[in-house]
């Protein structure tokens, strides 16, 4: 479903002292939801912060819907088209849901009070929070707070949404509900979704990017990532020496991922199996996203 890239990045590099949070990241995003997977410290938040224009990269360039944030005018245009849900949204707990989203709308330059309030009501409705819009944020559940943060990111109907681990801490039902909202948002936009949940990616995403140590290690479809583990997952009575990863299941057997022995009892791979193999020093395979 992707056609022309809506977000293109080339050679993005961001260093913190000796750590390369981003190391020569090149990618292209299109409409739909792209999942961003990677272990702790992989650089996911750094990538989202750079693309959100919250932090400038040390090297490299990118465009958002054709606008280049390297120039002041381009940055203003890019920011008008971006919605960003950061990892820790930093709510003021005394704000009501409405007041918080309204505050974000003011920051997004919606100066006409009537039009702004209509927009705030629209985005709160889109995330199903109309009934609690007058409640203080400190009185809302974690799932509701995440929806307030998503509403804030949706203000102004941005063409590009950057979501940093929005499903963390949600119970399965809330997570399902949140996935639906993200899928809706991705129907007509570009969404980049950072997550540790491989099920989020399997159930929701059109594309997936895997990062490790600041580099893109894989970019392709969820099916392509899962296919990386075809013929490489097997069941055994112990962790196999040929396994790159292996763990005891609830049934007491071992699920092994790696190089199976002859005659191994092979299992259908999951996206998580493919992800584990990509992380285990597999050669980088970067298709266009
Ligand atoms: N402000 C900072 N100062 C110093 N180092 C930083 C800073 N922000 C990030 N880093 C480092 O950059 C690297 C990438 O961090 P980043 O937060 O982007 O990873 P991540 O993939 O989002 O991790 P997580 O899954 O734990 O959120 C890590 O080594 C981290 O310690």
UniProtKB/TrEMBL annotation:
The keyword Glycosyltransferase does not apply. Pfam families: ABC_tran. It comes from the Bacteria. Keywords: ATP-binding, Nucleotide-binding, Transport. InterPro entries: AAA+_ATPase, ABC_transporter-like_ATP-bd, ABC_transporter-like_CS, P-loop_NTPase. Residues 7-238 form the ABC transporter domain. GO terms for molecular function: ATP binding. Belongs to the ABC transporter superfamily. This is ABC transporter ATP-binding protein. It comes from Streptomyces lannensis.
């Amino acid at each position: 479903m992707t056609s022309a890239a809506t977000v293109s990045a080339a050679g993005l590099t961001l260093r913190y002292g000796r750590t390369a949070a981003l190391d020569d990241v090149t990618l292209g995003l299109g409409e739909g939801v792209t999942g961003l997977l990677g272990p702790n410290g992989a650089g996911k938040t750094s990538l989202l912060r750079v693309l959100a224009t919250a932090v400038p990269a040390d090297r490299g360039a990118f465009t958002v819907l054709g606008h280049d944030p390297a120039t002041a005018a381009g940055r203003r245009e890019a920011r008008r088209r971006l919605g960003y849900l950061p990892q820790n949204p930093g709510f003021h707990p005394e704000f009501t849901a409405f007041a918080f989203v309204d505050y974000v709308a003011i920051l997004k330059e919606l100066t006409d009070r009537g039009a702004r309030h209509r927009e705030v009501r629209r985005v709160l409705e889109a995330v199903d929070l109309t009934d609690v819009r007058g409640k203080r944020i400190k009185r809302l559940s974690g799932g509701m707070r995440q929806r307030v943060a998503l509403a804030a990111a949706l203000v102004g109907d941005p063409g590009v949404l950057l979501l940093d681990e929005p499903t963390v801490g949600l119970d399965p039902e809330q997570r399902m509900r949140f996935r639906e909202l993200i899928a809706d948002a991705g129907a007509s936009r570009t969404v980049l979704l950072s997550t540790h949940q491989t099920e989020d990616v399997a159930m929701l995403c059109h594309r997936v990017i895997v990062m490790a140590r600041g580099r893109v290690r894989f970019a392709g479809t969820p099916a392509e990532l899962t296919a990386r583990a075809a013929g490489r997952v097997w069941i055994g009575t112990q962790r196999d020496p040929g396994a790159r990863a292996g763990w005891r299941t609830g049934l007491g057997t071992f699920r092994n991922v790696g190089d199976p022995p002859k005659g191994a009892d092979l299992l259908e791979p999951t996206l998580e199996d493919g992800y584990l193999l990509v992380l285990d020093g597999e050669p980088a395979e970067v298709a266009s996203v």
